[in-house]
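Hi everyone, sorry if this is the wrong subforum. Our group has a chain we'd like a structural model of before ordering constructs, and none of us has done structure prediction before. Sequence below.
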Amino acid sequence: MPTTAESRAAALQAAFVEAARRNQWGWIADEFYAENCDYLCEYGGTMRVMATSRAEIKATHYGREMLVGWEGWTFPIERYCTQGNQIITHWWNRGPGKREDGSHFQTPGVSFITIREDDGRIVDQLDLFDMAHQMRLCDELADAGLLSSQLDENWVRPMKARLVGMLTRRP
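Answer:
Right subforum, don't worry. Here is the predicted structure as tokens:
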């Protein structure tokens, strides 16, 4: 019999497929997250985005982050493992279209999730992914004519500037 964590991980995996199909993400926060929860994404050290409630998650990670410019992107969870009330997911930042060789335009990410055992709601999540590879992926998408101009202007260019600023040695 699956544990609560295994059941929730499988349900979350299916929810990401459904959210991508509908291009609607906010309902995931309602269905999976506790009212008072912590969600942190460090964006490769360039920017720290912290949400401390379901409402903030909807306003950031499953709202602003997933809407304008992200059309055609999916974030499928390829695999997960669980132990007790902990879930680790391996997922993809998958851009629209495919490369000429048929492979996806994608970069990997990982989430470390803690759930409440009584109801399976997420109470803590840390997302990590390689920002440099994500920027290179966006360059590939731009070269293929698949990168949204809005995403490029509002997310890619500012993120590249942050990376350069972060990596520039200061006297």
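For your construct planning: The chain has a mean pLDDT of 91. The CA atoms of residues 32 and 121 lie 5 Å apart.
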